[in-house]
Specification:
The chain is an alpha/beta fold and 308 residues long. It folds into two domains: 128 residues, Rossmann fold (3-Layer(aba) Sandwich), CATH 3.40.50; 145 residues, LD-carboxypeptidase A C-terminal domain-like (Glucose Oxidase, domain 1). Helix content is 28%, strand content 21%. It has nine helices and 14 strands. Strand 10, helix 9 and strand 11 form a beta-alpha-beta unit. Helix 6 packs parallel to helix 7 and helix 7 runs parallel beside helix 9. The longest helix has 13 residues. The radius of gyration is 18 Å and the shape is globular. The termini are close together.
């Protein structure tokens, strides 16, 4: 597995916008917050551009900037500005040899899921599912500490723990070992039937989503089930599902009902309510590294790190 180097204060973080744009003042606030944490910051051109209203530059521009950040010897880690929409457009434009030959910490979540999958499967790169630059100025202390820990240590990360007020819950008891893969459910469902379809064989599959009505979550979980993604997985970890509630308070399954209806029958060790995703707390975890899942005792333990 290719791994980037752990970073320390004084190192350079390159910020890219591979998906949607943000306002310029938010970009500058993000830069100030990262600098206040002790890092140098190189802002990519995409951080200041928009294309079609919902993209941070055209696809070729966004892909080329990713190449440039990986090839830039002064850049020690790459942090995505935000998610939104747009990363699937880049998958056929990226040079995965460039990425594999210049491994660096790569951090993001949500729409960045498509890049996590492609980097893992085509560049053999371990990556970080975690908060992005635009959130850094207002990031809560727990999430901030978790992110900085993942970025700055080469030691095994150990047990991933929720803050005390949030309980990790058991869906299916049992234990499993494997690499962690996954991310946002919507993006993962969108990879199916493409060359970038997620590989879950013998993996621990992580899923989260936001603002999807239960019937949409049902549709996508069913799609993954039909594609064999649950049957092939060694274990399953479910993060947060913010605002995934019925519209207009209609009578409906909850997402927890759907976990029991669709995922539990596969009898894979499964936990849920780990505070990873679009919630106020967003714990950073590595993808592409080995972990032990002890669902019976509500424990996910990372036995190596994403950084070398």
């Amino acid at each position: 597995m290719n791994k980037g180097n752990a970073i320390q204060p004084g190192d350079m973080i390159g910020v890219v916008a591979p998906a949607s744009p943000v306002k310029e003042e938010e970009v500058l606030k993000a830069k100030e917050a990262l600098e206040a944490a002790g890092y140098k910051v190189l802002l990519g051109e995409t951080c200041f551009t928009t294309y079609g209203g919902y993209l941070a530059g055209d696809a070729k521009m966004r892909a080329q900037e990713i190449h440039e950040m990986f090839m830039n010897d002064e850049v020690d880690a790459i942090l995505c500005l935000r998610g939104g929409y747009g990363t699937p457009q880049l998958l056929n434009l990226l040079d995965y040899e460039v990425i594999a030959s210049n491994p660096k910490l790569f951090i993001g979540y949500s729409d960045i899921t498509a890049l996590h999958i492609a980097f893992r499967q085509y560049a053999n790169l371990a990556t970080v599912h975690g908060p992005m630059a635009s959130a850094f100025p207002t990031l809560d202390s727990y999430s901030r500490e978790c992110l900085l820990h993942v970025m700055t240590t080469t030691d095994p990360l150990g047990e991933i723990k929720n803050p005390p007020q949030e309980e990790i819950k058991v869906l299916v008891e049992g234990t499993a070992t494997g690499e962690i893969v996954g991310g946002n459910l919507s993006l993962i469902a969108n990879t199916l039937g493409t060359p970038y379809e997620i590989d879950t064989k013998d993996k621990i599959l992580f899923l989260e989503d936001v603002r999807e009505a239960p019937y949409n979550v049902d549709r996508m979980l069913t799609q993954l089930a039909l594609a064999g993604k649950f049957s092939e997985a060694a274990g399953i970890v479910l993060g947060t599902w913010e605002e995934c509630v019925p519209k207009d308070e209609e009578k409906s399954f909850s997402v927890e009902d759907l976990f029991r209806e669709i995922i539990a029958p596969f009898a894979k060790p499964t936990i849920y309510n780990l505070q990873i995703g679009h919630s106020d707390i967003n714990i950073a975890i590595p993808f592409g590294v080995k972990a032990n899942l002890d669902a019976t005792n509500q424990k996910l333990t990372i036995v190596e790190n994403v950084a070398k």
